[in-house]
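User: Show me a protein chain along with its predicted structure.
Assistant: Here is one chain, sequence first, then structure tokens.
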Amino acid sequence: MPALIDILSYLSAAILIFLGLMFLIAATIEPTRVFPGLALLLLGLGVIYVNRQLKRAKLTEEMLETLVIKFAQREGGVVTVAEVSAGLNIPVDVAKRVLERLERKGLAFLDFERIGDEGVEVYRILGIKGEE
């Protein structure tokens, strides 16, 4: 079921597009209504475009989390930011952000014992067989 914000954004876009079309129809009688009609139409289409881009970005974040978890499974459940970055061919800041997001969700935690030994942030992904 779509979120309320999605429903509201698509509803507002539909209203803007409808009003834009009404202005364009009215422009047949009074040509000065063409510009507001086009503006409303483009604004409505812009709302739809932005909503889809935000949804796509969220989907990409979820896909990255899945890829990091699968990578961690291959690595025995323990990974560093650099390993994730190199293994998935993504920038270091993106790898760090994904690991921190997994930590906030409770799916990973910093292994402070290994951090002291290795000198880098080591994340342990929970629920992976082969954990030490």
